[in-house]
Amino acid sequence: MRKFFEFNSIRSRMLAGFLVLTLLIVLIAIISLYTLNNIRYATNIDRSINQLQSNTLILIKSDDDFFDIGATDSVYFKSHYSNYIVKRDSLNKKIQLGLTVTIQRLRSNATSIELNFATIQNTLATYNQKFLALEGLLYQKGFRDYGMEGQMRLHAHQLEHIPSAISMVDLLSLRRHEKDFFLRNDFAYVIQLNDLAQQFRQKLVLGKNSLALQHLNEYVNYFNRLVSIQTQIGIDSQSGLRHELNLLTDKLSQEFLSLSEYSSREASTTQRNAFFYFGLLVTVAVFISLFSSFWLAKRLSSPIARLSRMMNTAIREHNVKQVDFSLNNAAQEINILTFSFLQLIEQTNGQLKEIEKKSSLLEKGNEELKKLNQELDSFIYSTAHDLRSPLTSLLGLLHLAKMESTQPDLKTYFDMMESSIHRMEDFISQIVGYSKNKRLELAPENVNVYLLISEIFESHRFVEGASKIEMLVEVKDKFPFYSDRARIWILFNNLISNAIRYSDTSKVHRYIKINVVINETEIFIEFSDNGVGIGIEHIGKIFNMFYRANTKSKGSGLGLFIFKETIAKLKGLVTVESELGIGTKFVIQLPNLYLKNAGQSTLALTA
Predict the structure, then answer these.
(1) Residues 162, 219 contacting (CB under 8 angstroms)
(2) How far apart are CA 245 and CA 253, in angstroms?
(3) CB of 14 within 8 A of CB of 336?
(4) φ and ψ at 355, to 5 degrees?
(5) Whole-angstrom Cα distance, residue 26 to residue 21?
(6) Of 442, 45, 449, 437, nearest to 261 (Cα)?
(7) Distance, C-alpha 36 to centroid of its chain
(8) Which residues, other chains included, contact 150 with Cβ-Cβ below 8 Å and sequence gap of 6+?
(9) In Å, how far from its chain's centre is CA 419?
(10) In terms of domains, do 73 and 160 share one?
(11) How many CB atoms lie within 10 A of CB 239?
(12) Coil vs helix vs strand at 584
């Protein structure tokens, strides 16, 4: 073994040192990976627990906001839709998914913490059941003109308008008991209202006023049902479903706190053990490395140091070629390495200079390109703003000129000027829309397609000829539709505006049909009209920029180009069928981002 290290070769002399260092590195790597894996596991579990706890607190806060604010929102009772409900559903899905993923990450020996997670899942399921029951009662109860409260008020107002039924004073007394109950939650007012209503019934029976009697009975019936619902919801903070939700909220907080404390202790213990073993290993490795380094230095650095001194001497004496580089006990590779290294350094310096030069040019080009893109965006928006301001002023001046002009011939010119200004404004809007479509990323959200189409129809209600076109819309939405609402608006707005603009005025019955089918992964849109149609020679070109298929077109030729670009941005497909004098049909297929945004666990939760 000793003779092996006597060879005049760097390889043989460094082999032993490298073998020792390699073994140390492998050992450190194995232990480091093991300890880091334990730390990462404990940290991830602790982070997941904290995230679940945070999301649960936000869920509870969202529920409180719904009961405090959303439960008095007329829009909610009119459409049974509330942003608070949407937010809490999204949070609930996230919590359920987080619980499932965290439990799957648990190791097989983590029985205690798994039981804690199971307890939290059960408590959360009970909390959601109670919330849904309470939300259903609130919706059933209604508010103002909606639900049972709306029906009760309706019958009360009907009693007011029936002559000789119940005097206004008696009716006000009846309604005062109603309001006193809902303000003070005292059942004495319920008894008083029913007693007073019984007296009125007797009078109405004697007076044979069946209509008033019917409204009175319905009023009292709805009141008593509202009292029952209010009792289920909770007369005070210590009763009803609200009280049960508060208890479950406290229980969830306590369970998460206990779980978080347990997880933190486990993470701290794992980290302390890892630091101890890792520190011990590093200490041993440093000691062995110092020993092996000293041994290698004695074997290798001494000849290299001697070579360095000889090279310095040769440089000082300017007699490099005559220097003898043969050193006793030095590796033969040292001489070759010296000359090769000098040549390599020389070549490397030249290449580095060339690289630095090209890198500088490339960086400068990138900066100029970035600056040009920013200037282009700024130019588009600045130009749009600067062009719209004088156009708006021109419209105002035209309006004044129309009002003050007494020459009927000028009205035609004024109308032509106003039409040209509107076309310019539309062109500017389309340019800005195209820029935004290219630059902005998708922002998926829940899109109510029917409501969106209705809004666009309403915005075109005063367009010339729109009132004579029948709008036929059918939406089959078994699943929610998630996509970029602004871009979906662009698609329908382009189709509807073009259908109105190019409707066939010679036809008695003009229509626009929109059939929408939404499934779990896609949306299919069939848009058809019986307008003037598009010639077959134009079908392949209508999506080109600035192309106009109709010689009478007053548009910019950008509408369908932006339409096609928006379809491409949404990763969809579109086909067109048209015949002159018959009409046009667009078939659009777009991806539904419902599963990506809402999660598949929604189906099991809402089933």
Answers:
(1) no
(2) 12
(3) no
(4) -65, -45
(5) 9
(6) 45
(7) 33
(8) 77, 142, 143, 144
(9) 40
(10) no
(11) 14
(12) strand
For residue 496, CA distances in Å to 473, 529, 535, 589 come to: 12, 9, 19, 17
Residue 73 sits in a domain whose CATH number is 1.20.120
88 and 298 in contact (C-beta within 8 Å)?
Answer: no
Pairing of strands 482-484, 522-529: unpaired
Which strand (E) or helix (H) includes residue 587? strand 583-591
**What single-letter DSSP state applies at residue 299?**
I
pLDDT beyond 80 at 181: yes
531 contacts 502 by C-beta, under 8 angstroms: yes
| Domain total in the chain | 4
Please, what is the average pLDDT of the chain?
A: 77
Residue of 451, 492, 457, 464 whose CA lies nearest to 574: 492
Residue 327 forms part of a structural domain:
no
Residue 194's pLDDT is what?
A: 92
φ, ψ for residue 11, nearest 5 deg: -60, -50
Q: Is the pLDDT assigned to residue 4 strictly greater than 50?
A: no
Q: Closest Cα to residue 127, out of 209, 251, 248?
A: 248
Q: Could you say which DSSP state residue 330 is in?
A: -
Q: In this structure, which long-range contacts are made by residues 411-416, counting pairs with CB atoms below 8 Å and at least 24 apart in sequence?
A: none
User: Quick one: 474 and 517 in the same domain?
Assistant: yes
Strand partners, 588: 525, 574
C-alpha dihedral, 193 to 194 to 199 to 202, nearest 10°: 140
- 56-60, 353-357, 558-562: lowest mean pLDDT where? 558-562
**Judging by DSSP bridges, how do beta strands 510-518 and 469-477 pair with one another?**
parallel
Give the pLDDT confidence of 418-470 residue by residue, as tens digits.
656 655 655 566 566 555 555 567 788 999 999 999 998 888 887 778 888 99
Question: Any idea how long the chain is?
Answer: 607
Chosen domain end from 377, 405, 439: 439
Three-state SS at 464 = coil
Structural domain including 418 reads 359-439
Q: How wide is the angle at C-alpha 499 spanned by C-alphas 496 and 502, nearest 5°?
A: 145
Q: Are residues 455 and 493 in contact, defined by beta-carbon separation less than 8 angstroms?
A: no
Cα–Cα distance, 534 to 592 (Å, whole number): 30
Looking at the structure, do residues 445 and 435 belong to the same domain, yes or no?
no
3-state secondary structure of 528: strand
How far CA 257 is from CA of 57, 261, 263, 267, 395, in Å, comes to 12, 6, 10, 15, 65
Task: Encode burial over 203-223: b for 16+ CB neighbours within 10 A, e otherwise.
Answer: bbeeeebeebbebbebbbebb
Spacing of C-alpha 465 from chain mean position: 39
Cα–Cα nearest to 51, from 236, 263, 279, 203: 263
Position 114 in a domain: yes
DSSP per position, 219-255: HHHHHHHHHHHHHHH-SSTTSHHHHHHHHHHHHHHHH
The answer to pTM > 0.90 is no
Q: In terms of Cα–Cα distance, which of 502, 510, 507 is closest to 532?
A: 502
